[in-house]
Amino acid sequence: MKYLKSKLFTSLFATLLILSFCMAKPAQVHASNADSAKMARWMSICSSMADNIEKKHFVYSNGGTARTYNSAVKRSRRSNCALYVSWCLQKYGALGSGQTFYIRRGSSSIRKNFGHWKKKKVQVIRVNKRASRVNLKKGDVVLWSGLGHTNIYAGKAATYGHHSGSRFNNIGKKTQGYLNSKTVSYIIRIKGL
């Protein structure tokens, strides 16, 4: 009888363990799907913004630019790396309309025209390390202190031909080998990615 009770208890415990595992699994899958959906939405915004900039024949410029994409289309069709990323973050909802930021060449601080980041949407991480020592995640906005450059890791964000007036006709991934030795000042990470 003692043996039968022990066997019954073991079977019941094993069944409860299996049930609890099965019940917990959908929550993990759901969280993963939510993260995947955020990533897909973010990368889609970045990609479509880059495509629109190319189709509308924007030129690279640090002057005569507009704080929103729609204003830039109507007025000047000028942009730069930081404006491109700012417009993507505006469309994602992490920045308000017209809020922009950049990092000046030789500086290691973010210059922005707004008070606070939307903490529920993004996390701003101070890094100040070489890229080869930073654990970048796909979708990270990267601010390079020595270059005065901003891009999106593994997204369509690098702009070639940084001289004023150059066309946005080759927007794509920047060679990681070139950037490995450069210093990352900040990462702006979309929460949930």
Description of the molecule:
A hairpin with a 6-residue loop joins strand 3 and strand 4 (110-112). It contains four helices and ten strands. It is globular. It has 193 residues and is α+β, with helices and mostly antiparallel strands. It has a four-stranded antiparallel β-sheet with strand order 5-10-6-7. Strands 1-2 form a two-stranded parallel sheet. Strands 3-4 form a two-stranded antiparallel sheet. The model is unreliable at 2-31, 155-163 and 169-175 (pLDDT under 50). The longest helix has 54 residues, at 2-55. Helix content is 39%, strand content 20%.
Mean pLDDT across residues: 76
Element-level helix/strand string: HEHEHEEEEEEEHE
What is the overall silhouette?
globular
Largest sheet: 4 strands, antiparallel
Proportion of residues in extended strands: 15-25%
Q: Percent range for helical residues? A: 25-40%
Task: Kindly report how far apart the N and C termini lie.
Answer: 55 Å
Low-confidence stretches: 2-31, 155-163, 169-175
Number of strands: 10
Structure characteristics:
193 residues, four-stranded antiparallel beta sheet, two-stranded parallel ribbon, globular, disordered N terminus
Question: Could you give a quick summary of the protein structure above?
Answer:
The strands form four sheets. The chain has a four-stranded antiparallel beta sheet with strand order 5-10-6-7. A two-stranded parallel ribbon has the order 1-2. A two-stranded antiparallel ribbon has the order 3-4. The chain is globular.
